[in-house]
Amino acid sequence: MATRKQDDLVLEAKKSAVKPPPLFKVMILNDDYTPMDFVVVVLQKFFSMNREQATRVMLKVHREGVGVCGVFPRDVAATKVEHVCAYARSHQHPLACVMEEN
User: Fold this and answer.
1) CB of 40 within 8 A of CB of 56?
2) How far is Cα 90 from Cα 83, in angstroms, rounded to an integer?
3) Which one of 21, 41, 46, 68 has the lowest number of neighbouring Cβ atoms within 10 Å?
4) Strands (E), 1-102
5) Is residue 14 classed as helix, strand or coil in its secondary structure?
6) Closest to 34 (Cα-Cα) out of 63, 54, 62, 7
7) What's residue 90's pLDDT?
8) Residue 31 CB contacts under 8 Å (≥ 6 apart), including other chains
9) Who's near 50: CB < 8 A, 6+ residues apart?
10) How far apart are CA 83 and CA 42, in angstroms?
11) Rounded distance, CA 37 to CA 24, Å?
């Protein structure tokens, strides 16, 4: 960093260590009412997955009860959860989308 002499003193800029923000997993939970095709559409629309990726995640949700859609910083994850839940409700599906710290 830059140094400057001032009356025989050397001033140096301090480097501060900034930690990366904590990351959160966004997950979709299985239910008995939401159609599989709707889950695939949600994964494509909100998580930018292609049809094949979205189908894989949907099948994981169907078989195991939960599927990870992505890992994001807290504000992005919260926004995605809100958008998915609002979209599902507007189409009258009980699809649950949650987030947890990675």
Assistant:
1) no
2) 10
3) 21
4) 3-6, 9-12, 23-29, 66-73, 96-101
5) coil
6) 62
7) 98
8) 94, 95, 96
9) 44
10) 10
11) 25
Rounded distance, CA 41 to CA 101, Å? 25
Neighbours of 64 (CB within 10 A): 9
Go through the chain and tell me how many residues it has: 102
- Cβ atoms within 10 A of the Cβ of 97, count? 21
Each residue's pLDDT expressed in tens, for the chain with a length of 102 residues: 555 555 667 778 888 888 888 999 999 999 999 999 999 999 999 999 999 999 999 999 999 999 999 999 999 999 999 999 999 999 999 999 999 999
